[in-house]
Specification:
The structure is a single chain. This protein has helices spanning 2-26, 29-44, 58-62, 113-119, 131-140, 151-164, 167-173, 185-196, and strands spanning 50-56, 81-88, 182-184, 201-206, 212-221, 228-229, 244-246. By secondary structure, the chain is α+β, with helices and mostly antiparallel strands. The protein folds into 2 domains: 1-42; 44-246, Ribonuclease Rh, Chain A, CATH 3.90.730.10. The strands form 2 sheets. Strands 1, 2, 4, 5 and 6 form a 5-stranded antiparallel beta sheet that branches. A hairpin with a 6-residue loop joins strand 5 (212-221) and strand 6 (228-229). Bound molecules: adenosine monophosphate. Adenosine monophosphate (AMP) binds next to strand 2 and helix 5. One of its GO terms (cellular component) is extracellular region. Keywords: Disulfide bond, Endonuclease, Hydrolase, Lyase, Nuclease, Signal. Pfam families: Ribonuclease_T2.
């Protein structure tokens, strides 16, 4: 009985002491410091270090065994198309699906739709108007940069980057054409580096005949989504290219 009483009194005294220390600390610099550190790490949990801006060659999406379906709005131009603008961490990992409370809302980007149909074409089957692809990209990647770019800002940033990084024009000026011939990957990468001033990363896939081909080009962009930067880290893996790859027609 006596021991129980002593223990509960002791616990209450300890609790009282903790409360008084906390209430004193609330006014102190130390409490302010702890609060700052906590707030910063909470917000950084959703933050990111840079973007990958990824463009895709439609000919290489379509001539694979999975094939493709042109969007309901018609065959996309014979040009690289946007795959996505992806927030990434310097350690190579990336955040995804950061905010289920901010779903894709096409009414926010109605002024961009015709440019998206042209530059961010959906090629998956069944044929659709593009919304499925764009909403996937926004919800998986875009929501992780919403502290910097709202939905309109996100899609607009990607479209502006597409006109800044005109891959087809850069490659064609270097004599690299989508003509079904093979080109050396290091020559493709050098041409792009000379064209934009930064080193790209190249990913390949395989056509129905088993040939490796130029599939996607990654460049890095600062957290504002507007300026190209050197990539802090390249994607993991080797991009599945052989030293020379096909550049198929589309
Ligand atoms: P992500 O999840 O953003 O890394 O992108 C991969 C997904 O995007 C896969 O499901 C692909 O099939 C899809 N995807 C890639 N390119 C296209 C495209 N041009 N049209 C539709 N879906 C695509």
């Amino acid at each position: 009985m006596g021991t129980k009483f002593n223990r509960s009194v002791l616990i209450k005294l300890l609790l009282l002491q903790c409360l008084s220390v906390l209430s004193e600390a609330q006014d102190s610099d130390f409490f302010y410091f702890v609060q700052q550190v906590t707030d910063t790490s909470m917000s950084e949990a959703q933050d990111f270090d840079f973007f990958y801006f990824v463009q895709q060659w439609p000919g290489s999406y379509c001539d694979t065994s999975q094939s493709c379906c042109y969007p309901t709005t018609g065959k996309p131009p014979s040009d690289f198309g946007i795959h996505g603008l992806w927030p990434n961490y310097k350690n190579g990992s990336y955040p995804s699906y950061c905010d289920p409370d901010n779903p894709y809302d096409e009414s926010e980007i109605s002024d961009l739709i015709s440019s998206m149909q042209e530059n961010w074409a959906s090629l998956s089957c069944p044929s659709n108007n593009g919304s499925t692809f764009w909403s996937h990209e926004w919800e998986k990647h875009g929501t992780c940069s919403e502290s910097v770019l709202d939905q309109h800002g996100y899609f607009q940033a990607a479209l502006k980057l597409k006109s800044k990084v005109d891959l087809l024009q850069i490659l064609q000026s270097a004599g690299i054409n989508p003509d079904g011939r093979n080109y050396t990957v290091s020559v493709i990468a050098s041409a792009i580096r000379d064209g934009i001033g930064y080193t790209p990363w190249i990913a390949c896939n395989v056509d129905v005949a088993g040939n490796r081909q130029l599939y996607e080009v990654y460049v890095c962009v600062d957290t504002s989504g507007s300026s190209l930067i050197e990539c802090p880290v390249f994607p993991q893996g080797d991009g599945k290219c052989t030293s020379s790859v096909e550049f198929p027609a589309f």
